[in-house]
Amino acid sequence: MMRMFLKKTDLAGLLEHLSRTRQVYVPSGPRFELLSGKPAKQTKIDLNRKTFFSAKKLFLPAREVLFEFDGKGKTTAMPKPARIQAPKTVLFGARPCDLNAIKYMDMVFNDDPYYMKKRQATLLIGVQCTSPQLFDNCYCHYTGTFFADNYDLLLLHVAGKDSKGGKGGFLVKAGSAEGKRLLATRFFSKSGKSNENQMDEKLEMLRKQFKKLTKGKIRAETKINEQAIEAMAQDCYSCTACTSVCPTCHSFLIEDELDIDRKSGKRVRKWDSCQLKRYTRISGNVVFRPERLQRVRQRIYCKFRYSLEDQGMMSCTGCGRCIDVCNKKIDIFDVFDGNGKEPAK
Questions:
Q1: CA 142, CA 163: separation in Å to the nearest integer?
Q2: Which three-class secondary structure state does DSSP give residue 118?
Q3: Are 148 and 176 in contact (CB under 8 A)?
Q4: pTM of the complete model beyond 0.85
Q5: With contact defined as beta carbons under 8 Å apart, do 281 and 101 qualify?
Q6: What is the pLDDT of residues 230-281, one digit of tens each?
Q7: Hey, where are the domains in the chain?
Q8: For residues 170 and 230, what is the distance between their CA atoms, to the nearest angstrom?
Q9: From residue 238, how far is each of 174, 284, 286 by CA, in Å?
Q10: Which strands, in side-by-side order, build the sheet including 265-271?
C-alpha cells in the first residue's frame, strides 16, 4: 500500500486552502490559535512542542449560553442542535494525547447537543510525536495513549528529501472518509516508501525513547498509593491550574444570569473545578468534600479508576500538562509506586 506524502513546503498552502471554508486552529505558543484569515506562512505554527492549553474549549467553551428567557413564561431556548453555533472547523496539530482526550470527551458528552454539534463540525488532523526528548512530563507510554485512532488525517514527520527533491515532510495516513477525500487534493503525493509496517515500526521505536520509562501500562487493578495522595494534598494550593489545562476535566456549573429588569436573562454553563471547595456545595450550604485531601483523592480516582470503570478508558491521557503548570511541580503519577519503578524493599 502506497503512503501519501505532504511536503513541508506545501503545509502552508494546505492550511490556507482549508481556511477558505473552515476555521483553522493550529498550535501556536501556549495554545491552539485561530489562523484568523492570515496566510499560514505568516502564522507561527509550533510543531516542536505541545501547547500548555488543550483544544477542549473548541467543543466545551469556558462559558456557553444554553438558552435565554424573557420573563413571560417563554424561552428563546435552543432545543434543536441545528441552532447551536458550530462553524466548520479544522483542528490541526493535535497530538495523540489530545486526540485520545477528544475520544474520551466524545463518550462523556455523546448526548449533549451543544458539544456534539461542534465536534461533528470539526476535522481532526493529528501530528504524531517524533521528538520525545522535548516532552519531559509526558506519560502517554504509561497510559497507553501514544497512539490514536480517532483522526481524519495523521501526519508523521520524516526527515530528508522526498522523491521530488523537496526538504522532507510528512507521511500521511487517513482515518476517515473525509480524510481520504482530503488526500485527493493537490497538496498530497504518493510516497516512494511502500512498506506498510514502516510507520508503525517507527512509532514503536519512538515510544521506547521516552525518558520516563515504566514497567507496563496502568490497568484497572493497578494499585493507587494513598500515602502519595496525602503528600500531594499537603503540597496542593487548590489553584485549579491542573484542571484548567487538563484536556478531559469537564466539571462545570450552570447559572442563571438575570438582566437589569430581573425577569429576562440567560442560562449559562461555565467551567468549574472539582478541586474547589465550592464545587461540592449543595442545598442547605452543605459541602460534602470540605477537605483538600478529599478533593485531591477524587481527582486521582476520577482520572485513573472511575473513568476506566464508567467509560472503559482512563480520562488521563498522559499529556503531563498538569505537571507543567503546577507551582509545586506535583507529579500525578507519583501515586503509582514512583512512576512505575520497582517499589523499595
A1: 37
A2: helix
A3: no
A4: yes
A5: no
A6: 999 999 999 999 999 999 999 999 999 999 988 888 899 999 999 999 999 9
A7: 4-207, 226-335
A8: 45
A9: 42, 24, 19
A10: 75-77, 63-69, 265-271, 252-258
